Here is the input.
Amino acid sequence: MSKATAEYVTARAVDLRNKSTAAFDIAIGKNPDKVRAMLNLWFVPEFKPTFYNEHDRYSKGASTTSGLDDVGLLDPSYSSAVGEPGGQEGRYPLRMIDLDTKHLVDYPDIGPQSQYCILSHSWKGREVNYKYVLDAQFKAFNRALAASEADRLDDKTATSTVRLNDIDTVKHQCQLDIVEQEKRIKKLAQENNVASKLGLSDTSDIVEELLSRRVDVQVVEKGHDGKGGLQKAKNKLAKALAARDYDEMEGEVFKQFLGDIGLDEKKADEVISEDTDSKPAQPAIDVADAEQALEDAKRKESEEAEKIQFFEQHGHIREAIEELIGCLQRSKSMVKIEQAIERSKEIFDKNPFPKTEKRYLWIDSCCINRGDDGEYAKSISAMGEWYKNAEFCLVHLDTRRDVPKDSLEDWQVLKSVIPHPQPNITSYAGIAVHKPEWSTRAWTLQELVMSKTTFYVNSSWELLNRPVQCFGPWYHLCPFVALYTGIDTNNIYSSALKVETLPSSLAELLDRDGFQHHLQNIDTSSEAIIVAQKLILLLEIFDLRIPRDIDMDTARPRITQSVYVAVSGLTTQSPNTNPDAKQLLDGILELLQPYLSSSRACSLAERARHAINIVLSCLVNLIKTPICNDRDYVAEFGNVPKLDLWQKGLIRSRFSTHKVMSLVCGRDATVVTDRAYCLMGMLGVRFPTFPAEGLTKALSRLLDEVVITSNDVSVFNWTGKEYGSPIRGRSLYPSSPEAYKFGTDEKRKKEKDEKLIKLLQIKRYELTTDFLAISEMLVDTITFVKERQQQNIPLIWVKEILRLIKRAKFEQFKPHITNIGKILKYIETAFDSKLTAETQSTRSPSPSNRGAQDSGTEKGASKQSGQSSSPFASLPGQIKTPSLPKDMTSFKAPKFGRKKTEVETVPQKAPSQPSSSRGFGGFKSPSLKSFGRKEPGTSQASSAPSEVETPATEPETASLPSAPTTPSLISEASRHSLDDQVLSYIASIKVGDKDVGESTTTSASELPPELAKVLADVKIKEFSKPHVKSEEINTMISPNPIIIKNSGIEGLFDIQRVVVSMAQPDKLRRQVRNAVSPHQKMTGWCIISTGFARVMVSFSCPKHILEKELDIVQAVEAKVLKGKDLEETLDGSGDSTVDEPSKGSQGEAQATDKTWQKAIKNKYAPQEPEKKDENDLDAPDFEKARPEGARVSRMIRFVQESDLTQIAGEWVLARFSGVPGAKWFLCSFELGGSGRDFYGHRIASDEIDFHNASPEMGLLKYWEYYMMQKKYRLCSILQKLMESRDWGNHKMEIGQTLAKRVAKETGGNDQGGDPEGDSDDESGDGKISDTLKDLGGLALTMAGAGLVQQFYEMRAERLQKNLSADVLKKFPPHIQTAMESLNDNKDLMPSMFHSAKKIHMF
Here is the structure.
């Protein structure tokens, strides 16, 4: 296209667009409806889409038998090994024993047609190792050559040999070694004339005699159990003495520290002393035990001195005897191998394991070439995977190792001198009672946890049978099949599962159709176990093959595929199809046909899949519970707690590092580095082993691999000042697995810390308990008053109790909480039940009859009560004259029929004083005697002293009669006595405004006998400190990268600045001056405070780190704790500037603090002429809290430093960011050379646990004041409600009087009116006018009383709704959150930290 053409086309397009736009605008302006219809035609679709509710679609569950549409297919060659650290390589052992041929096979081929098992055992002396097997084979080969040469030479004297398998060859060699060594000993004994020296006449038993003597010497050297001996007794005593001395020194240091923080000697001894019921401390007991053990060892040595001397003189005989002991141990090891083969074959044959061509057994003693370092390192790192892939693990629960007497016993059994010893365990249930040594070994932890299933034999190689062992591989598969069947909720035969006899019916098909089967005959088996075995056989007939390496992630797809393959083989014509399986399938389908719930036609394959799933569900229902119970029992005697998913059978590796490390604590290993290497399988890592590196280095490499592989932050949740790692760049790691679990010493230290914390917090928890009890009483009473009518409530009790609570401090009221609570609970329960029993007609008499009823009731009550105002009498006799709230003092009632205005104030009458006529605050009760005559303008004053001018009541007309009373459950006679007792008890409680010290504790007054009897059965709520349990976190995987370098570990950390105070800083400075090197370890105690809470820990760090911190602590103490550089003086007005912010602080914070202080001063200064209600509580003495409060404020501002560079050089708290459960640890925080990088070095310390932290003293002072104010506010709420009810009753009384007067006037006119009809007498008009005025005044007064009642109710609701918020406003904003946490009894966790800061930890 040419340029001109393009310009023309563009111009035409623009012109067309302009014209179209103009036409569209004209069309819209002229006929918008037509345009709208056209647009709808263009843009509204002709079809309506159908939307499906995904929740409804899948809420019924996805059927696992609907085919493979919604199942992710896995390749048949897929294996879970792809996710393992070693991958497909090294999944199986390099060398194993063929169970059928008994040959040792190198690199066996493990596949679908082969399987293997593993022996778990304890090494006992010299075991048959791979080198010995090779030597035995070599010697057998030489003997065969010699025999062959003899045959060639026709030598008649040569011994003929037969080709033996490897096991028999080794066994034969063991026997030859024993015979040869016996001959050597006899020869040496004859050459050295041993028989005469020992005084033996018969030399035939010379070997046994020498062996017996050598065993006695070994008992002296090793002890009876192989763990003692003279030398070990000496070492044990030395360690016990050192531990005792250290404990005493630590106790003295701790005691001095307690004195420094303000505890007297008595309380310090209470913290340090152990709760042992006057028994010696544990270090002293350890020393006594060690001394006794050393004394016994020395005595035993003196007894066997002659034998010891003999073997010292005849070293060659001693060596020969030691070699004979080794030969006996190898012979016993050979028996172990032989018996393990036989038991493994028995287990494979008798249990439903798949039938394969090859079956192998792996034993670590003879299947690892320890002479090849490469093979040994590879075997150690891959051993966990080998256990995981084995079909089962055979556990040999043998007797204890290294027992000297065993050698002599083995010799005597070999020579048939004695029979074989009795087994150590006779039943499976007796394993836990026996407590086998096997459960205390380090390697056996991995062997137990990683195995699919375990079988157990005793010392005599007898199987310890249990019912679940007959399940074979289904013991391992059951939890995964349960995951598969749990989602099969749309099975067409699902209703059949509700029939209890269905499993038995399915099992009977095997017997009905004549299938041959063999079931294990277990004595303890139940009918369910037998049925389960038949169902397993049924699935075997169907050729259902579930992969052996199944796991929780692949359970559903792999089982679905297995079922699909099995069904395909049953429903398709194939030469390999088993006709018996088809016959059995037809029987099952026939059995399930009555339960078919689907109306649509289902294919044979689909029905077969549903039927197999029904069989699987029945099997799971039968065996799931027995298997879970068995796993719990195994976890108990195997010493494997807290692995929940393992006990459920769902996982066998990749556990939380902290849990695994805590499990290995206390377990022994022959090679110390094995305590780290044995955990590789459970943690899912691999790395080359090097036993010479030591435990600390091995543990460090293990934890490196864990962090690299999984980002598991639980690695760093260790404690203990003695467990800091000396490896550079690995201060975040411990030096021993014991750092993950408290030992005996750590537990004692923890108990001391808890005692101290409890002692420091006891006042807080006591105050919390008291406040909760008081607030519970007040809240219940508030609720009760809100929901109840007051006619039958003894309000005089409530009012007197309310006045008492408002005036009393917590210490004063504490002894009386129980009794007062019972009185209030009695009011609530007794009168509440009475109200529900009364009928509505009894409670609400008709207005026309109220006058007589009120009068009669009131007179009766008056006669019985005498001068006392009973709480069960009419309500107006119980309450005082209502008074207007201060907020409504300007409201005045209009006066009708008066020409004089009177000033009225609040009455000042005692609450128990009865009043026959009332003045109502700003309202004056109009006199009803003016009806029918003119108001004289004056009124008689009440005889009671009052500031309110209240008209008297004339005899003929009662002014404001009482409300009707409701009959009480209590008799009239008991009312008076109970009333007097309650009021006298309340009056006996003495409270005052002065502080209650330790020496002036208030004792509880005794209840009167009759009152105590009534309240004996009243139950009140008891309060106690809630048990705070730290949250259990199963996994703690960091979402942020953690970089492992040779120089350190880099990650994102939360940094919390703290105020550190050293215990005995002068002593620490002397230690620093006397240190010989910058890296010398130093220990001490310190208090770590976040401004809100503080914890005390012991620590250990190098000298150069402690030296810097001591200088910082001194500066912080002067500036923050003591505030020496701050102005803390009083200004001219007497106002304190204690909370003065330092330079650089915002003026807003300064104004807030000063405003708060002025509010406190203005409200609670005693010289303020503030007018208070008689029940108002004087404010607590806040002067004592001011210094501590100012100290807390300075500490909070100090820890709130926003610039991280300003914190460099200090000790801080750090934890990994964004990981729930990550613990805080003490860290030396430094600034890098670039000024932007931050470095850290972890300081080994005790556990820093803020769940049991002690609040700062100043915060506690604030909090005590906070609790007092909340109590005061609750009392105010209840008081407002009571006053609201007073006004409500007053309104009701006015209404009743008004109704009676109207009725009277109306009735009088109708019956006794003027006989002359209308009259022009002015006096009549005047009477009517006065009557109307009085009635109007009463009506307006009643309306005013209703308004005041509503005001009090609204005020009470408002106070209750904003209770905590109103009180919190009195405190600085930075303390309000802590107040709420203390109020809710929550822990004061660090909350003002710098989040997700990149730190390089050395």
Notes: The chain has 44 helices and 19 strands. The two ends are 73 Å apart (CA to CA). Residues 1257-1311 form the longest helix (55 residues). The CA atoms of residues 1090 and 1168 lie 37 Å apart.
